[in-house]
Amino acid sequence: MTQSTTAANLDLHRQQFPALAHKYYFNFGGQGTMPQTALDRIFETYQLIQQQGPFSVQVNSWIGEQSQKTRAAIASEVGATPETITLTENVTQGCNIPLWGISWQKGDRILLTDCEHPGIIATVQEIARRFEVEVATAPILATLNEGDPVAVFAEHLTPNTRLIVLSHLLWNTGQVLPLADIIKLCQDYNSHKPIQILVDAAQSAGSLPLDLDDLGIDFYAFTGHKWLCGPAGVGGLYISPQARETIDPTFIGWRSITMDATGNPTGWKPNSQQFEVATSAYPLYAGLEAAIATHQAWGNVRDRYQQICQNSYYLWNSLMECDRIHCLKDSPPHSGLVSFTIDGADHKTIVQKLEAEGFLLRTLLHPDCIRACVHYFTSPEEMDSLVSTLYRLTTG
Fold first, then answer.
1. Mean pLDDT of the chain
2. Which domains are delineated in the chain?
3. How far, CA to CA in Å, does 355 sit from each of 351, 379, 386?
4. Measured between alpha carbons, how far is 373 from 169 in angstroms, rounded to an integer?
5. What is the DSSP string of 159-202?
6. Who's near 98: CB < 8 A, 6+ residues apart?
7. Is residue 170 over pLDDT 80?
8. Which of 18, 166, 202, 310 has its CA 20 to 30 A from that of 374?
9. Whole-prediction pTM value?
10. CA-wise closest residue to 177 among 204, 149, 211
11. CA 386, CA 235: separation in Å to the nearest integer?
């Protein structure tokens, strides 16, 4: 997509996102703004189900078809085959599937980074308590501007390390970890039984260009309601065919199993569907499929990522020109997350004042900062308005 085509299409494309008409939106890392097509599909699907009968033969057939369409849409975004995608509700559920599905043994070791989400940390702590598993932390935060994260991981691997849990795109600083190099490190460390990797992909799915089938990752958990701009309540977990053989379902339901003619369970579904459980809010599946189609109508994953990086550079560069504002990253970001601090300011108060003027951002605790998120359809005018408002709030 050429630069002129990008500029010509952007304004028209933005009109498909109703929230953008009322707010300066910089919080895609928390929840994306849904396109009207997704909202319409959700509403229309709920209506259709009620008209046809919520538990009719026709609706039940539609549920199976829509589930397959949603898996295929997700797979097209992350570079995978639909058979490797488990439909979930969110990232945390996706991470819990392998975390509890592994047959932990006393003395096994889980290696986290110091940039993981509290929900994942809490799960790992409970696993450690129940199964007497060791937990260690790799200090990745310090490698944001200097240092080698792969070397940090290498220093913290041990013979009993069974699983690494990391974020591909760190939710606090915006750093993109070199996932392919980390995977190779784990494969080379013990070629007979490579260390498995579980990725919290809350910020990377719909943001970074991905080819999961080629990457060789074990588990990659993501959601549809952040950068994919779908509804809350739908997510996914990529499980490689090899990794699928190493975990067992923890929660089990009719979607997990095959049945004979009398309805008796006969075994697991032969693919990643064995980790799905039971009834879900299926109209949300249609909403996510519609949201993905809206993005793909503008450009492919790499086109969108290129535009995200152009936008994050624009914002980062503008913020760096403000004396009291300091971006955590001292070089242009490789993602849509731009985190910064403000000298002498209470970040929570600043975010509250921004929201009162129609700018939606968020604060983070570790490190103490403000995070702005730009998507491919964020406009230069929005970023200029944010910077000028920040300048006024911090110099007045």
1. 95
2. 3-31+300-395 (3.90.1150.10), 45-295 (3.40.640.10)
3. 6, 18, 11
4. 13
5. TTEEEEEEESB-TTT-PBP-HHHHHHHHHHH-SSSPPEEEEE-T
6. 163, 196, 198, 218, 219, 237, 239, 243, 247
7. yes
8. 166
9. 0.96
10. 149
11. 30
